[in-house]
Amino acid sequence: MVERFHRTLHTGWSHYINTANTNWDVLVPFFLMAYRATPNTTTNYSPFYLLHGREMSLPTSDDLKAKISKESPSHSQRLENLRSSLKSAYKMVKEANKRSHQHNKQLYDRKAKLRKFETGDLVYLYNPAIKPGLSKKLKKKLRLGHTR
Q1: Does residue 85 contact residue 91 with C-beta atoms inside 8 Å?
Q2: What is the pLDDT of residue 146?
Q3: CA nearest 133: which of 14, 21, 23?
């Protein structure tokens, strides 16, 4: 899961990082906000919703005022509503993750090939050179068929 998040992070950053790779630290909060507000394709819930029990209110140019509910339910009623909505969301996420895991395993197993390597076997390692001072992780990925 961590590796998948890092792949998402690097893919997202690669579109906005300058050529000198010096502005990545400025982009972190913006990327994380967008990531937390975006519903997951498997669970259909955003990370923010799963943590807070409501969707993130993002500012727009039309309305920068705080959104305050007209009705004021009691504190205990708000907590009960939050608890029940999160319980329901967690149950659905757990089921969706189980289905997704099974589906991904089936897809992987279809094309997986058993490979055995012995000590001393020759293997090919692709490791292109990176200019000194640049990060290999933050380098933009080339699409197949395109060259720089």
Answers
A1: no
A2: 39
A3: 21
Q: Which of 95, 1, 105 is nearest to 45 (CA)?
A: 95
The residue ranking higher by pLDDT, 48 or 67, is 48
- Residue 146 has φ and ψ, to the nearest 5°, of -110, 145
pTM for this prediction: 0.48
Find where tokens 């000198």 sit: 20
Angle at 74 between CA 70 and CA 79, to 5 degrees: 110
Q: What is the pLDDT of residues 6-57, one digit of tens each?
A: 888 888 878 888 888 888 888 888 888 888 988 888 788 898 988 888 888 8
How far is 79 from 110, CA to CA, in rounded Å? 46
CA 33 remoteness from chain centre? 11
Distances (CA, A) of 127 to 26, 105, 124, 147: 29, 29, 10, 17
Q: Rounded CA gap, 18 and 24, in Å? A: 8
Main-chain dihedrals φ then ψ at residue 102, nearest 5 degrees? -65, -40
Q: How far apart are CA 132 and CA 54, in angstroms?
A: 45
